[in-house]
Amino acid sequence: MLALRPATSAAWLAAAAAAARPSFLPARVGPSFRRGPRACASTKAHHCLKSRLKELIPEKQAQVKYVRTTFGDKSLGETTVDMVYGGMRGIKGLIWEGSLLDAEEGIRFRGYTIPECQKLLPKADGGEEPLPEGLFWLLLTGEVATKDQVKSLSAEWAARSAIPSFVEELLDRCPSTLHPMSQFSIAVNALQHDSAFARAYQTGIHKSEYWDYTYEDSMDLIAKLPNIAARIYRNVYKDGKVASVNPDLDYAANLTRLLGFDVNSKFVELMRLYLTIHADHEGGNVSAHTTHLVGSALSDPYLSFAAGLNGLAGPLHGLANQEVLRWIMKMKEELGTTEVNAASIKEYLWKTLKSGQVVPGYGHAVLRRTDPRYLCQREFAMKHLPNDPLFRLVSQIYEVAPGVLTEHGKTKNPYPNVDAHSGILLQHYGFVEQEFYTVLFGVSRALGVLSQLIWDRALGMPLERYGLVSRLPASR
């Protein structure tokens, strides 16, 4: 058996997939699976996207079969005791189609970096940021959609966006003191009442059809999330009145409209960027892995995603940008009339570290440079809100913190991650309800985890079950 170090195993697997490509398959399969746009016969996104996926599935199935037959007995790396006790960090145990995290370049969506996605993915008329619809198309097919395909997908989601009256009533009856994420999970679970997959499974459909019904449920669920999120927001923080979906608007613009913000403001552009960059981050994080794990039991997309949302609600996962914002606000309060400069920020950073706390928004388990998702948000702020006081403070922290953290010596990555910036952008545009930020994260994350769930069913991924160790050697 060939043993490989974990650091090299991902690259080896990609190379093996390329080498294993059967001669009868087109060059699109494997690491070059990402390709340019391909026109579809139908002008409707539902049929166009689904028919394209239907073409890709047999190719991918053949590739997986060949790789497993040829390389199935090869090792992806060594598992140590520390890995097991350390939350399985570093163990290679999951196939994830949509994204891969590179230590130097950050997240890649189907091989494309964040800057490449910003450049290549379709944008709204007059817009500068990529549309989330384009990223979903990319995650699902590995291909860059045309502008017309993305517009059709926007219209398709708008057409599917209505939520059942009983779900509306359920949300309206929730006390305003119930956390928005709890309400979000309740609503998604309730939508399971109309699951196409659950109904079809009860009739005894063939497993080769699982992906079809998973696709239908996933499309319905993604389409309904802005309506659900907005109803929660308007009930908890506003007057309870929710606008209707505009079929002529894109996904992020409709979310903005439903929340009650001006669709002609730059906040719409921020939402397009936010939903795109938060959509997927490999499959090992809690929300992504939980969705996959629950889905492996053939739970439908509603039950699977609701489970993922419950994981996202945890303070170690989806609450990070709130903690960053609280830390920054506390810094402003404690510094008071003290001039905020490099010296005072440095002193406050050391005070945080010496008290046994971490500096929120800094460091990353994999990345060894500044998170590209932080950088694209910084670029957005420099363009649209350069004089915002909170942005200027975040910029000052960015100049000082890496040096302090390097000197402190307890982090492998002293640079900011995505959470160090997102909160202050939302605050600038009047989105000040911090408890709701994780709901926005959840709307975005659906694009990544549900596109993968469709592929899980298409590739016949089995019930997930780990081996375990229960007997430990006696201590001396």
Automatic annotation (TrEMBL):
Gene3D superfamilies: Citrate Synthase, domain 1 (1.10.580.10), Cytochrome P450-Terp, domain 2 (1.10.230.10)
Domain of life from the UniProt record: Eukaryota
Residue ranges of coiled coil: none
Pfam families hit by this protein: Citrate_synt
GO MF term (any one): acyltransferase activity, acyl groups converted into alkyl on transfer
BP GO annotations: carbohydrate metabolic process; citrate metabolic process; tricarboxylic acid cycle
Protein name (record): Citrate synthase
Native species: Olpidium bornovanus
